[in-house]
Design a protein that fits this description.
Shape: elongated
Strand content: 25-35%
Order of helices and strands: HHHEEEHEHEEEEEHEEEEEEHEHEEEEEH
Number of helices: 9
Number of domains: 2
């Protein structure tokens, strides 16, 4: 998926690959993620200028976007930073450490004064930021950066009927270790030129892995599980929902904007239309309170578990019949079909094969109701379209279904010669 996106990416500085492979992996991945978001969401990407990172246009609105990241402290490796913390520690991080961490790169970008560039004058300017300062920095939601940007801390209580009431108090500054910074970034001198700040904790390599798996860049030899916390659509709840799903049977199709948050500046000279940027949540100030609107599924943070199915991997790469090749799901889907059972709630395709001349195709599938396996063999006609020529079901395991598939494919291959 990363290679697919990079094919259309314009490397302005000429050092993307070098930094991606060495010291700038996280920052380059974040830029590639933003490019994937914009290029797959209907924006025109204007690549005529060295800075800022992106100029995007849609519906006759042009927006300048500069990306930045929160990095480990000088001389430290994020893999060595301990992150085994309690929920109470996370609250403290959101209140103090994270605002200080976000403040440094945002203030540095503010000092660049992008609004003085001729091609950025009178345009909404947006800063996009992601935290990579420690190994598990993606577990932290937008709570910390929201407090820093708006200078408001929320607290909750319940009335006599149990209804949740949220109050806000002003934050003067944030302190972490020996550093103290003023809160309310949007009220700082010059920040009126910044129309919004975009935050995500999912502009990461696991995002590309999941999107690649979802797009079919796999051959059935891995399993991916995603788990995390997400928005709970209950006005009286203060706790998120916990989710977990297998990417072979996802609870929701993932999008590039899923997990992206846009925080609008109430003092912006050139306000950004609230829903101009594709995202899954927006924050804005209303009556001195931070209001939030989000999609039904908005993840606060997640982790992805990747498992190599070793027996399957061995069978389709080393023990496969020499007449056949294992296909990526995406490769299989490029063929033309006259008749083939489409996706349904009963079966799920697991493996895809063809003969070396692409005349015979095969699928191993799982019956989700009976939890057993079957196969389909498809033959090509004179119109170069494929239709089903053999099907068998009720195999107890995947290995047996694959072996029987190859026997059937071999038979039909000989008959087609």
């Amino acid at each position: 998926m990363a290679n697919h996106i990079f094919q259309n990416y314009h490397d302005k500085d000429g050092n993307f690959i070098e930094q991606f492979q060495t010291t700038g992996f996280d920052a380059r991945i974040f830029e590639l993620y933003l490019f994937a978001l914009f290029s797959n969401s209907g924006y025109e990407i204007i690549q005529d200028y060295a800075r800022p990172d992106f100029l995007i246009r849609k519906n006759n609105i042009t927006v300048a976007i500069e990306a930045t990241t929160v990095n480990p402290s000088y001389g430290k490796d994020k893999a060595d930073i301990e992150t085994k913390i309690t929920p109470e520690d996370i609250d403290l991080k959101h209140d103090h450490e994270l605002p200080v961490k976000f403040g440094s790169p945002l203030f540095s970008k503010l000092n660049k004064k992008y609004w003085e560039l001729e091609h950025c004058k009178n345009l909404p300017i947006v800063f996009a930021i992601e935290a990579f300062h420690e190994k598990d920095s993606f577990i932290y939601s937008d709570h910390g950066i929201a407090q820093y940007l708006y200078g408001l801390k929320d607290s909750h209580k319940r009335d006599k009927n149990g209804k949740l009431i949220i109050d806000y108090e002003k934050i003067i500054d944030h302190q972490f270790q020996e550093k103290t910074i003023p809160s309310n970034f949007f009220a700082q001198p010059g920040a009126e030129y910044i129309s919004a700040v975009v935050f995500t904790n999912s502009g990461t390599w696991p995002k590309f892995s999941r999107m690649g798996y979802q797009a079919g860049y796999h051959r059935g030899n891995i399993m991916m599980i995603r788990q995390g916390t997400c928005y709970h659509d209950d006005p009286n709840s203060v706790s998120p929902l916990i989710f977990q799903y297998n990417l072979d049977d996802p609870a929701v199709d993932e999008t590039w904007e899923q997990g992206l948050v846009v925080l609008h500046n109430p003092n912006a000279l050139y306000p950004l239309p609230r829903y101009f940027l594709k995202c899954s949540a927006v924050h804005f100030l209303e009556n001195s309170k931070v209001k939030t609107e989000c999609l039904p599924f908005h993840p606060f943070g997640s982790t992805t578990i990747n498992s190599l199915l070793e027996d399957v991997h061995k069978a389709i790469t080393m023990e496969i019949n020499p007449n056949f090749v294992s296909l990526l799901k995406s490769e299989f889907e490029k063929f033309k079909f006259e008749s083939i059972p489409g996706p349904d709630s009963v079966t799920e395709e697991k493996e895809w094969f063809s003969d070396r001349n692409k005349n015979i195709l095969g699928i191993v599938f799982r019956d989700k109701i009976d939890d057993d396996y079957g196969f389909l063999v498809l033959g090509k006609n004179e119109k170069d379209s494929f239709s089903t020529i053999d099907v068998e079901i009720n195999f107890e395991d995947r290995n047996t279904a694959r072996k029987e598939l190859h026997i059937s494919m071999e038979k039909h291959l000989k008959n087609s010669v």
